[in-house]
Amino acid sequence: MANQLYLSSSPHFSSGESTDRLMRQVIYALLPAAAVSVYMFGLPALVTLLICTLASIGFEAVCQKLMGRPRTLGDGSAALTGILLALNLPASSPWWMSLIGAFVAIVIAKQIYGGLGCNPFNPALVARVVLLISFPVQMTRWTAPAPLSLSFDSVTSATPLGQAKEAVMLHGALPADLAAGFGDFFLGRMGGSLGEVSALALLLGGLYLIWKKVITWHTPVSYLATVVVFSGIFWLVDGTRYPDPLFHLLTGGLLLGAFFMATDMVTTPVTPRGMLVFGVGCGLLTVLIRLFGGYPEGVSFAILLMNAATPLIDRYTQPKKFGFVLEKA
Amino acid sequence: MVELILILISAIFVNNFVLARFLGICPFLGVSKKVETALGMGMAVTFVMTVAAVVTWLIQYFILIPFNIEYLQTIAFILVIASLVQLVEMVIQKVSPVLYQSLGIFLPLITTNCAVLGLAVLNIQKGYSFLESVVFAIGAALGFTLAMVLFAGLRERIDLCPVPKSFRGTAIALVTAGLLSLAFMGFAGLVKG
Amino acid sequence: MQLKTFPGGLHPPDNKQWSAHKPIEDCPLPEELVVPLGQHIGAPAVPCVAVGDLVKRGQVIGEAKGFVSVPVHAPTSGEVIAVEDRPHPMGRDLPAVVIRADGEDAWGDLLAPLDIAIAGIDELRQRILSCGIVGMGGATFPAHVKLSPPDEKPIDTLILNGVECEPFLTADHRLMLEESDRILSGIAVLQKILGVRQTFIGIEANKPDAIERLSRACADLPVEVIPLEVKYPQGAEKQLILACVGREVPSGGLPMDVGVVVQNVGTCAAIADAVLRGIPLIERIATISGPALVEAKNLRVRIGTPLRKLVEVCGGTRVEPAKIIMGGPMMGMTQLSLEVPAIRGTSGLLLFTADQVSTRPEGPCIRCGRCVRACPAHILPTTIAAYARLDLFEEAEAYNALDCIECGCCTYSCPAALPLVQSIRYAKNAILAKRRKV
Amino acid sequence: MIAAVISLGGIGLAAAVALGVAAKKFAVEVDPREAAILEVLSGANCGACGLPGCSAYAKAVVEEGVPANLCSPGGQATIEAIAAIMGVAAEAMVPQVAVVRCQGDNRKAKNKFHYLGLQDCNAAQRIADGPKTCPGGCLGLGSCERVCPFGAIEMTADGIAVISRDKCTGCKKCVAACPRNVIAMTPRPATVHVLCNSHDKGAVVRKYCEVGCIGCQICKKTAPGAYLIEDFLARVVYEQEQDAAPGIEKCPTKCIRDFALGYPEGSSFKAAESRPEPEHAA
Question: Where do transmembrane segments lie in this chain (chain A) (predicted)?
Fold first, then answer.
């Protein structure tokens, strides 16, 4: 016979969906946020983005080489981790910090677990938290937005969440001018890490992902809704101490987390009900940490904690199998 | 009442015995390969911790202090804990031989589990009242169980993964424990004290 | 109006446009027919002819052995030239009767037609057995067994499966369009045997002409045609029952547990032939399609016709086929060569070119959850598959591996190209083998 | 001082009484011999004894009188230890080793189709009886490698399983895992084996495999008594294995191998490590 036939088990048809394509879509969805950050913070933001991305790809390649595993840079997961990491750092981060972050994310949080699909914790968030704890000064030196700046010596400014927390700690009440900045928050004119600043850009990216069916609505919706409801309760109880839900939605890394980190497929539940539970858990923990914890921002910790709970959530939110009947006693 | 709730929350999350105080690491690493086993261990520890807290508190305030022999605290507490563990061991062997087998050596080792002794000693150090001690014990035990079960879930998942040879087993477990502890740092400052 | 359906499933491109408008054609007789003795689920038939015997069309050449078994009949007249192992669609050589056709195609003595108004129920069932009727949707389960529910399981509903949710296949579609009278006669027989009046015909909404035709034909009968959402696997028995009558067959149970019997429309037509005309199951309608073929067709095929003949009738191949599939692309079986014969379960023959064969290497599971959302059995394919790969069958069983209906939705939707359903099948086999041992 | 003694003693006494009562109430009887046997077993839980794991075997020996010589990983020493614990005479066990009876890797043997899908022999075997044309040939997808508890099996780059004679303990797990019955248990002292599992006629074998046994009888003629031909397949008569050497040389397809001289091509195992134990070690 000239050509040998292919034989395989059914099905002989596939959707054509591929891991590479999914990762690429997420990267596209992050581009608006990345562009806004570069616009707002100028050259330093671009440098941080580049270092993180390239270093992540580099570390991934080195690991796979060392472990003698096939090179899978083409799947885009390392680049994605790098971009996410950069979006979680302040624009003023020194180059070595980006490098350490990329190392932690790729090597410690991902490759030693066996690579893509195996890491129990979101690599970019692990890196962010490691950096936050190790270099608190550099990690909280936020630069004030200075559109298209080429300078590396920029004015520092606090994040809105930081301001709120500090005011409550010192004076027992929120600063009076807090609500003034909503328009700025929405467009990204505030201090913060690269990816936190523009709610609009993040929202666009998130909706793109849902539209393209890369992610489902479950996690973002349940996450954001929980934050609104839970923070709303506190706000209604005491509006002078606790900021209103809109403030929570638009500031900090909430949108970035809800659309891009809490939907990271590898580290979150696979069942639709599990995703809802995951979102609710993230929402509760975020608000709890923001309002009562030692850190002004709770998104990273909340998602990491829920990452840890993911195997259990999956286990206990299995769909009811077809034809499930309770055993008759 | 608020005080008690704060003690409970603090013991479970903020000052989690395993992940923040780093007590009881031995069973945490030893019997966390399966969620069921971890749960069984958590329950055994919960029982021992709660009863130990009660008994050691009574011994401290009704025997050691009245007789001025606080210097015997450690040995007296260990004595109590050891007997309790023995008791639990016998009960489990009778009731659930499967659990008994899977817990293996770690069951008698609860005796020397620093989490239990640490709890008894902390109770006295912090000057907790009887009720507070019990609540603290329950909180600590729940926190221990929570950490165990979360960790076991993660390990079950890691077991399905092609972890590089040199990291397999305890190495990857320790890394994971570290990351889990990192995540728990988010609770820092939630409850003062 | 919201069409009825079931939760889960997905929408593969249906590719029915190649053959949906092609009327059924008779496939000419080949010179030699290979009739396997095992064409159904259950014990293979026992040959009752010897080399050199002359047989007539419709004559029994293999007798049923046991309750779950059916006889096999000669598809045409001619001489038996061999009774030996021949390549079978299952992928290995299995016992078959080889007949050299004499070209006269002369009928043998057929069983007398039955009048369903007079005939007893047992007589009707016996006739269905004698004529070798099996489920023609592809599962080939003997029909008489399905029609003999135990007394403690009363049946109140008959559902005819005209869904044909597999892409490419249009054989049932053409049958419903062109030969609806056979189906209606079959319904009458089935209603009599089961003693039911409530009957539904489930048809996917992508066959509006068939829906219209049957609806008109059934206007005065206690038969309702239900248009169903176009979704794979709408034609899976349990999913069909849920969609049509809202009953969920319990896990591990059979449709009769909820008072339902499902028959494929093709089976129903064959039953009509058997009872009303005494004709055994010696031919069926099959869709011959696929990009490697010159022209797609719906053919009436004699059982035992080599696949090569079917391809010739369709004008041969455009390019060398890279994959030969008997059945649909989702659940069909790949074939080693075109020399194997068409059998009673051959609902289609697809020839794929190298372009349709995905040789993309599998990647790691990224836990995207697409398989979980697509799974019509509502289990966790990726988890079961992961356990199956490590031979952890007890864990796989605890995650309900045995509830898998092997529809292939998980593998279809997997972005990492993992052979999920194959892994689950592997676990199922191991679990069942272990159970048999104990 | 006295207070200390009394109070500690009191606590101890109270605890002792409580434990004593509990011991009565929750008593579980365990035969000490069971623990002792478990102690001497290899702990591999390989199932070579036919029981699910070492503790089950220990229990079966004590409670059901199952023979003491079933632990092949442990070898003779373990058998003697168990026999001593049970107070019975140690029965000899002929140590065995598993051999892959096939050398037809992807370069030497033909496939009848391209297989796509789960890379597992049992899964592949279900698709038209597996891609390898030879019905008895190794599929090379490593099902045996994965079940081996001792890491004794490796897959060569060209896709064939090779079993290390040093690491194999004779637990038979691979035999059960192989869908084509390619792996056979052989007496450990024998190092010469016919590495083919095809019962097809010589002419058929030649069509699909360069290194298959074609049943030509040459080995039988050159080394009388050391070989048998059954169903077109030669096999070594292990009792006469010492006379088998001339047949290796003369075999036209080179399908007979003396493992004392080397492992099949592509294997990383070294023959030097595998000097045969003294004849009839048992």
Answer: 26-51, 95-113, 125-144, 193-211, 223-240, 246-263, 275-293
